[in-house]
Amino acid sequence: MVTYVFLAAAALAIIFSILAIAHRSPIINVLSLVVVFFALAAIYAVLGMDFLAAIQLIVYAGAVLVLFLFVIMLLNIRSVDRLGSGRRLQAMLGTAVSIAIGAAIVVAIATLTPAAGAVAPGSTHGTAFPIGRSLMTTHLLPFELVSLLLVAALVGALVLARKENQ
Amino acid sequence: MSTIPISPTWILYLSAILFVIGAVGVLLRRNGISIFLALELMLNAANLAFASFAFRFAGTSLTAGHALDGQIFIFFIIAVAAAEAAVGLALFIAMYRRKETIDVDRFNILRW
């Protein structure tokens, strides 16, 4: 059962990520990416990482992609260039580099010794309680720094997007 | 001890596939927003790799006392990606104001 959920989510993620980068309508790109992020959230949930599944949906599908939609509608972008329609050199080099990256990753994965996962079904290691406690004790400093980063990004975004000469 | 019957290697391969699809998008597209979307996909592929290793090593002797670190890492990546998306999209709005386009080939004043 769990395996089927994983395989279905993986298939969805692959199909819709191709749609997300290849389709010419930016709205369809973003909505496909929403499906990909839902599939990834399903995979996190299947692995027992409940908290991550929740913030994946809330932060990515809920906040980041809505921001993308806002900007696309604000700038009124109706269609984007076809994949690889730029300079020939860019298309060729880009394809070659992507294939090289993919080959390098696959070789690296193939050298790993195969092992089963170490998480038992029904484990609570990924719920909000242990992660929240870890964030408030062991990882308190990076947690506070990230809140500082978010404030800085908020102010920076406001300054950048503001109209000039006002 | 029985574990969830998913191989961490499958998750790694899925992450590799998504990463390469994202890389194709970043390298072959010229529209700024499309590049940015593909970048988000690559970040998520990296997150999936972290999840795979967190799943593989959680609770083993190798990660004693650090069983949650993989998930904490994903948490921080998501937070940084949210900040990056806000700043990046604000940059595209500023760029659009200046040139009425977000084609990255048109933003070459720093070239050479």
Question: Termini of chain B, distance in Å?
Answer: 61 Å
Rg of chain A, nearest Å: 20 Å
Tally of individual domains of chain B: 1
- Using the coordinates above, name the CATH class of the largest domain in chain A: Mainly Alpha
- Strand residue percentage of chain B: under 5%
Shape of chain A: globular
The radius of gyration of chain B is: 18 Å
Which structural class fits the helix and strand makeup of chain B?
mainly alpha
Describe what is shown at a glance:
Helices cover 73% and strands 0% of the residues of chain A.
Structure description:
- The complex is a heterodimer of chains A (166) and B (112).
- Chain A folds into 2 domains: 2-126, Four Helix Bundle (Hemerythrin (Met), subunit A), CATH 1.20.120.1200; 127-166.
- Helix content of chain A is 73%, strand content 0%.
- Chain A has 6 helices and no strands.
- Chain A has helices spanning 2-22, 26-46, 50-75, 88-110, 128-136, 140-161.
- In chain A, helix 2 (26-46) packs antiparallel against helix 3.
- The termini of chain A are far apart.
- Chain B is mostly helical and 112 residues long.
- Chain B has one domain (8-106): Helix Hairpins, CATH 1.10.287.
- Chain B has helices spanning 8-28, 32-57, 69-99.
- Chain B is elongated.
- The model of chain B has no long low-confidence stretch (mean pLDDT 87).
- At the A-B interface, helix 1, helix 2, helix 3, helix 4 and helix 5 of A face helix 1, helix 2 and helix 3 of B.
Defining traits:
heterodimer; A: 166 residues; mainly alpha; Four Helix Bundle (Hemerythrin (Met), subunit A); 6 helices; globular; B: 112 residues; Helix Hairpins; 3 helices; 70% helix; elongated
